[in-house]
Structure formats: structure tokens, C-alpha cells
Amino acid sequence: MRRGGLTASFVAQWAITAAELGHVPTTVEYGEWWYIDERTGWRHRAAIRDVFGDNWQEVIEMVAADIKRRRLRSPRDVMRLAVV
After folding, report:
1. pLDDT at 83
2. pTM of the model
């Protein structure tokens, strides 16, 4: 449960960054956006990839597109989105 919740929050964070930047961010861009060190960014990315595999970037793109379409700004609102 805890691991799934954490991974969901990482997806939300990564997607918010992608929506703001207009592209799936690199790990360095992601870390700079959220003011975390690069190593933590890599751990977040690894957790997302563990769940979604090699298609993790497609998931981020889909969630980012939904964020833009719905004009969401709150991480709480993003966490409520369904990822199919």
C-alpha cells in the first residue's frame, strides 16, 4: 500500500513537471523543478518504471495531457486522476 501511494505521488509530480515544461522532463529537470537532489530523482523514476515498465514515459505524457486539459494546479487534484 505504502509503496503504491508513493509511486502514485511520483507519477503526479513527474506529470505536473511535464505539463509545465511541455515535455517529459529529464531526471535532472525533474529534480530541479521539485528542489530534490538528482539521486532522489532517479529513485522516483525507478519506482515509476517498476510499476509501468518501459512505457512509463507514455503514462507521464497521458497524465500531463489530462492535467493541461483540466487545468489542474494542485498535486491533490492530480492524485485524484485515474491512470488507465
Report:
1. 63
2. 0.87
Placement of cell 501511494 in the chain: 5
Does residue 65 contact residue 35 with C-beta atoms inside 8 Å?
A: no
Q: How far apart are the first and last CA of the chain?
A: 18
Nearest Cα to Cα of residue 56 among 28, 27, 77, 80 = 27
Low-confidence ranges of the chain (pLDDT < 70): 1-2, 83-84
Burial string for 10-25 (b: 16+ CB within 10 Å, else e) reads: bbbbbbbbbbeeeebb
Give the Cα separation of 34 and 50 in Å (integer): 21
Q: How far apart are CA 66 and CA 6, in angstroms?
A: 20
